[in-house]
Design brief:
2 copies of one chain form a homodimer.
Chain A: H1 14-30, H2 36-47, E1 52-53, H3 54-64, H4 70-82, E2 86-89, E3 94-97, H5 100-103, E4 115-119, E5 125-128, H6 131-143, E6 147-158, H7 160-173
Parallel strand pairs in A: 4-6
Antiparallel strand pairs in A: 1-3, 2-3, 4-5
Helix pairs in contact in A: 1-2, 2-4, 3-4
The complex binds zinc ion (4 copies).
One zinc ion binds next to loops of chain B.
Chain B binds a DNA duplex (30 and 30 nucleotides) through α4.
Pfam family, one (chains A, B): FUR
InterPro entries (chains A, B): FUR, Fur_C, WH-like_DNA-bd_sf, WH_DNA-bd_sf
Family (chains A, B): Belongs to the Fur family.
DNA sequence: AGTATCGACGTTATAGTATAACAGCTCGGC
DNA sequence: GCCGAGCTGTTATACTATAACGTCGATACT
């Protein structure tokens, strides 16, 4: 009667629980099965505030799922990417949840146009959605007779928080 | 007295030889040393018509340089990237020569804005230079209070040649 | 010359990321 | 019951990259 859906829902935070329920509905709609393992891996990804590596996920998954091995987690990750529920951050070889539905953008074509800002200091990664970037890239491709399929657009730098932090450190060292 | 610079120049094609000589001058200007190993690795990269993986380079390097090991080639690759002579194609974990000088664009800031079109079929990769893409990405970053450092912009798809090839195959299967 | 230093390289070992290959299981339709 | 498809278990391995430490030679200062 807790009302959040699957029996293992309580293992994650409330926000994650909601996202998991939505993911379950998405998979239903797609005629694909969000199994326990897949759901669990997705929960681990969503519960993190920064991208998570496959072997980190494996370690965490093993706490509740003794038999897990690399293929276990890579299969789940492949499935979740196919469903558009997570993305891979290439620069970090790590995975983040997709928050597309929060912003209502077109899922069907979304995978091709994922864009990330990645903080070198804290690793926090935000997915942005700038049509101008994708448009400019596609226009350039067209000029080369190139038929686009998937793009990797990632910008590494310092997030606002870490810039502020660095400024504070600078001030402390050289006050006035 | 052959006039092309280093003694090993003859190992590569004429075009590659010219690029190697230019690279030697670039390094001179930078006060850095284009050693035999570095020059050889650069030659191997330049002589390929598609991106080359580090272990492929290692195999080829070993044909003339028995003692080579992974660090040998990775050190050379790091150096060449620092000099702006090659780029890494992240999606392929492979390396291509930079042709910047052919187009006279700004080298100092170029590394941050490298853009590739990568063919999924033949792996051939072309470096493009579309300021609008970098501009749009930087504008988006600014809007998030994000300070950019290095970007990865790669579009995977089908090159014009492979599209034509695919079309021919299609025609053959369904003529008329 | 002596020697401190630095950059490049040799060598061995290991970390980190990802997949191949095959076996077993379950579930639903026939 | 039987089959086929999809999911998982399990072992082994491939591929990419770096750590750590030792050697050597050139440079430069004394
Ligand atoms: Zn997304
Ligand atoms: Zn940060
Ligand atoms: Zn370039
Ligand atoms: Zn092609």
């Amino acid at each position: 009667m807790a009302g959040t859906g699957a029996m293992m829902g309580a293992m994650f935070g409330a926000e994650t629980g909601k996202l998991l329920d939505r993911a379950a509905r998405t998979c239903d709609r797609n005629g694909s099965r969000l199994t326990d393992i897949r759901r669990h891996v997705l929960g681990l990804v969503l519960d993190s505030d920064r991208p998570v590596g496959a072997y980190d996920l494996l370690d965490r998954l093993r706490q509740s799922h003794k038999g897990a091995a690399p293929p276990t987690v890579y299969r789940a990750l492949d499935f979740l990417q196919e469903q558009g529920l997570i993305h891979k951050v290439e620069r970090l070889s790590a995975f983040v949840g997709c928050v597309q539905d929060d912003r209502g953008h077109d899922h069907a074509h979304h995978d091709h146009k994922v864009q990330f800002l990645i903080c070198s200091v804290c690793q926090r990664t935000v997915e942005i959605d700038e049509p101008r970037i994708a448009d400019a890239l596609e226009a350039a491709a067209a000029r080369h007779g190139f038929v686009p399929r998937r793009s990797t657009i990632e910008l590494e730098g310092l997030c606002a928080d870490c810039v502020a932090e660095a400024d504070r450190a600078e001030q402390a060292r050289e006050p006035g």
